[in-house]
Amino acid sequence: MRHLALTIIAAAAVCLGASAQRMPGRVNFPDGSYSPVTNINRNGFPRILQDGSVMFQTNAPAASAVQIDLGGRKYDMTKGDNGAWSVTTAPQMPGFHYYSLIVDGVSVSDPASYTFYGCSRVSSAIEIREDGCDDFEVQDVPHGQVRTLNYYSNLEKAWRPICVYTPAGYEKGNKRYPVVYIQHGGGEDHTGWMAQGRVANILDNLIAQGKAVPMIVVSPNSNITRTAGGMGGYSRTGMQPYFEEMAMAIIPFIDKTFRTKADAKHRAMCGLSMGGGQAFYIGLNSPQLFANVGIFSTGMFGGIQQARELDLENEVPGILSDTENFNSRFDHFYMTCGEQDPRIEHTRKMAAKMQAAGIDVEFESFPGDHEWQPWRKSLHAFAQKLFK
Question: Where does residue 35 rank: exposed (0-12), middle (13-18), buried (19+ CB within 10 A)?
């Protein structure tokens, strides 16, 4: 309760300061700087400078100390005469970055930026542009819709949220569509891919360019509380509860609610990090449900503390002993990882091992660490391969 009270007091101090200390007139920002799309006030702070560094300013006149925690690095802010605290960070990599204000030792969201759920908490974030990534932005093309629905889970005995993207034109006619089931990572939920991952922008732009077929994208909340036999993590047993949720609740709900092409050939399962492990275990072990599987930045091959030596044949029976049959049941098997991600070499070696065994798997890497920019690029590439 004490921590909650401190958080409320710190947040109130920032909010009251923000409302009481409006800066007169227009701010003269550095030449070449720009406001990220994550800003609430496009004429305010934070501000991205030409070298990728970030200029922050916040009003907290009653505070004794204020810091910015950007990606785990803390920057001390300097207080001005008008009660506004400011700092400019080191240059940042392009992409999506979580951050928080620390006001007198209490971490709070910045009222100047939108908030997102990730890393098991709600945080502010900034978006730094990357050249050549226009498909991640809103463009002048026909736009689809993202809606949040609720389905009933017999496994959880509860109503559960799910986000669904439908392509432009879905509301007209009787056309049926293929479906991608996309999984979030640990510490995230069903909103991650639609908000941070920019699913709608990516699909809208690819479809408008004729590079991807119109498809539905489904983002469930894969945080299932029940575990099979008390087991969890990266194992067939640990993934069994979510397989049941997918097979008996999520897919039937989507097929009933939307005009889908309800067969394996017109379904794909993919995911990032923890979701990549789910795609591996559920997607590759369920060719009756999915003919397309994408695994992005999973730690199950190594690069994380919990990783163990993986016995491919034991985890996916037939993948080595009957490789020809395995290959025949999948249209696309695709793996990716960020080039600065600790998982990269383990993933690269596993992909090479699979290819040497005759498994039809495609591997790609993208610049970046364990973060949204490589995951967006993974979806961008994977979507162009599907359902053609």
Answer: middle
